[in-house]
Amino acid sequence: MANFVLVHGAWCGGWIWERCASLLRAEGHQVYMPTRTGLGERSHLISSSINLSTHIQDVLNLIKFEQLTDVLLCGHSYGGMIITAVADAIPEKSYPSSISMPSCQVMVTAWQALPVR
C-alpha cells in the first residue's frame, strides 16, 4: 500500500481531506494530512515571515520525521505548488510525478492506475 500526503490549498487545513482520507484508509493506505504553519489549528503561528518556502518545509519535515518512503503527493490548488517543490527536493522518496487532484475519486482512480512497485 502507499503513503499518501494530502496537501490542502490556501486558507484551510488538513481536515479538508478527511472524507478522501477515509476512503484511502479503507483501502489500506497510510494517509497524512498536515496543516501548514499559520493556517487552521496552527493559525496561532501566523507571522509575516511565513511563505511558500515555509509550507514546503512543513511537508518535507512531515516526510522526514515520519520516515516516509514511496510517497504519493497530492495537492489541491496552492497545495499543487507545494507538492511540486517537495517532489523536486526528494525524488528518491516520492513517485516521479506529483499530482494535483480536483477530487478524491480522481485521486483513487489515479492510484489504482499506478504500476505496482
List the helices and strands and how they pair.
Blueprint: E1 3-7, H1 18-26, E2 30-32, H2 52-65, E3 71-75, H3 78-89, E4 99-100, H4 104-113
Parallel strand pairs: 1-2, 1-3, 3-4
Helix pairs in contact: 2-3
Protein traits:
Rossmann fold, 4 helices, alpha/beta, 117 residues, single chain
Describe the protein in words.
The chain has 117 residues and is of the alpha/beta class. The chain has one domain (3-113): Alpha/Beta hydrolase fold, catalytic domain (Rossmann fold), CATH 3.40.50.1820. Helix content is 38%, strand content 13%. The protein contains four helices and four strands; from the N terminus they run βαβαβαβα. Strands 2-1-3-4 form a four-stranded parallel sheet, sandwiched between helices. Helix 1 (18-26) links the parallel strand 1 and strand 2 (30-32). 28% of the residues are buried.
Brief description of this entry?
The chain is built from 4 helices and 4 strands. It is α/β, with parallel strands linked by helices and 117 residues long. The chain has a 4-stranded parallel β-sheet, sandwiched between helices.
Compute the CA-based radius of gyration.
13 Å
Structural class: alpha/beta
Count up the helices.
4
In which order are the strands of the major sheet placed?
A: 2-1-3-4
User: What's the name of the CATH homologous superfamily?
Assistant: Alpha/Beta hydrolase fold, catalytic domain
Overall tally of domains: 1
Instruction: Spell the H/E element sequence.
Output: EHEHEHEH
What's the number of extended β-strand segments? 4
Question: What average pLDDT do the residues reach?
Answer: 82
CATH topology group: Rossmann fold
Beginning-to-end CA distance, first to last residue: 10 Å
Supply the CATH class.
Alpha Beta
Beta-strand percentage range: 5-15%
